[in-house]
Amino acid sequence: NGMVPTESGRYLYENSLSLLEQFDELTVGLRQIQDRDRKLKIGFACGVLHVFPFQKLEEYIQHNEIILQWEEASNQEIMHQVQQGTMDMGFVIGQTADQKLWSLELLSRKMNVIAYEGHPFYGRASLSVGELREERLITLNERYYSYHSFLQRCRDFGFTPNIVARTMESQIIYEFCRQKIGLGIDADIHRDRAMMEGLHLVGLYDSFPWKVSMI
């Protein structure tokens, strides 16, 4: 508008920019310190959210004015973050051997074989892991603790299971079973009757149980 800064004005402007940036950083840093005690970062191992009462957690968070951050990852990733202190707490499958971590078992479910109609195991009340030696099997994939624990249990019986399909979604296990691609292996945590249509759940009495622990 026809005005120009003086030499002093230019000097003040050029040298105040860094000060203003530092002031902004200080403001953000103070806000982070104030918010730190109100933040809660939680990790859920893959599969845990099927049984976790998330609505109850939301009610607790709102009542106590806590800022919630959460993520879903593999068992090992959640344990690692809690060990490193980058996550406040985790809900994992199984128990941790780390003596520095506090752990509390919250839930335990058995593992099932999902059999389709017409298969010799359809209608059985229970099975041993050893009886699956020659069967085509469908499981969750390597991101899930249940996959690794089932693999180890089969090795305890002296064989490597014939896993023909691995998936991230439990529903796909049931769908593939209905197509008679193989027998499914999954934890007893689903209550959707539509998933069970045409299928029968057979308990694996000597497999590792599916346990949720808070760490």
The tally of strands reads 11
Question: Could you spell the SSE succession in H and E letters?
Answer: HEHEHEEEEEHEHEHEE
Could you tell me the radius of gyration in angstroms? 26 Å
Would you tell me the overall average pLDDT?
Answer: 89
Q: Give the N-terminus to C-terminus distance in angstroms.
A: 64 Å
Measured by DSSP, the beta-strand proportion falls in 25-35%
Looking across the biggest beta sheet, what order are the strands in? 6-10-5-9-7-8
Residues in helices, as a percent range: 25-40%
Structural class label: alpha/beta
* Number of DSSP helical runs: 6
Name the poorly predicted regions: none
Explain this structure.
There is one protein chain. The protein contains six helices and eleven strands. The chain is of the alpha/beta class. The protein has a six-stranded mixed sheet with strand order 6-10-5-9-7-8, with helices on one face. It has a five-stranded mixed sheet with strand order 2-1-3-11-4, with helices on one face. Helix 2 (54-63) links the parallel strand 1 and strand 2 (67-73). The relative contact order is 0.18. The mean pLDDT is 89.
Write a brief caption for the model.
By secondary structure, the chain is of the alpha/beta class.
Features:
6-stranded mixed β-sheet, alpha/beta, 5-stranded mixed β-sheet, elongated, 215 residues, 6 helices
Fold topology:
Layout: H1 7-36, E1 39-45, H2 54-63, E2 67-73, H3 75-84, E3 89-93, E4 104-109, E5 111-116, E6 126-127, E7 136-140, H4 145-156, E8 162-167, H5 170-178, E9 183-187, H6 193-196, E10 199-204, E11 210-214
Parallel strand pairs: 1-2, 1-3, 6-10, 7-8, 7-9
Antiparallel strand pairs: 3-11, 4-11, 5-9, 5-10
